[in-house]
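Data card: per-record layout.
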Amino acid sequence: MSDDKPRFEKLGLAYAESDRALKAAKELGEQFDFVPKEEADAIIALGGDGTMLDTLHEMLDGGEILPVFGLNLGAVGFLMNRYHGAVGLIQRLAQAKAMSVLPLRMNVTTQTGENFTYCAINEVSLLRETRQTAKVEISVNGRVRIAQLAGDGVLLSTPVGSTAYNLSANGPILPLDSNMLALTPISPFRPRRWRGAILPDRSRVSFRVNEPAKRPVAAVADSKEVRDVAEVHIEVARDKEMTLLFDPHQALDERIVAEQFVT
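The structure for this 263-residue chain is written out next.
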């Protein structure tokens, strides 16, 4: 994380296709000379959390990874700032708090031997594809920790994603600067007493699917799915560091802490 106040002279624009986001894009476009994303040194994203994730994934999939200042025109907007129109936007950018975010890199091998690699900002999830309970072996840094987890699946979450699916699966909320990952079972049947683990983010987590023909499992990195997987290996993608920009008193680290006190 950094409290530096960088100046952004060339701004790109990304927006959702909702009526609110389109209206805001037109409003801002009348006040600012936005440039193509490949020429920008920062991106303004208009929409909800989905728009923010789409914008970040577009950069992860290719091209330069730029700082992003999100303006909420969606529902929850956990990764976004409040939208106040064009007034004061340049000053807000100058005063914005920069938060560093590291995604996960998922390497998948399917039952037919195909290989896929995707990044996840929130979490990587393994999910059963049928009515049959999934059975998954879990290893950390090459050591088998659970020979067979039986349940709906399992997920590995970043601190950013710890308040999303991970929290819904009764996983822990992780402070943004904790340097930890949350390993959380999804509706576990066996072992009954295992409720997950908190791991250093230098850990390499591997999943191997048991009885894959009878109990097929899909792997999902945020919204990118690979079906009928055999093995999944996950580690932090330190070469893909991203920067999110926030108004100083509403930054992501404070939001994650505050989420622990929601009643």
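Known properties of this structure: The longest strand covers residues 143-157. The chain has five helices and 16 strands.

See the next section for split statistics.
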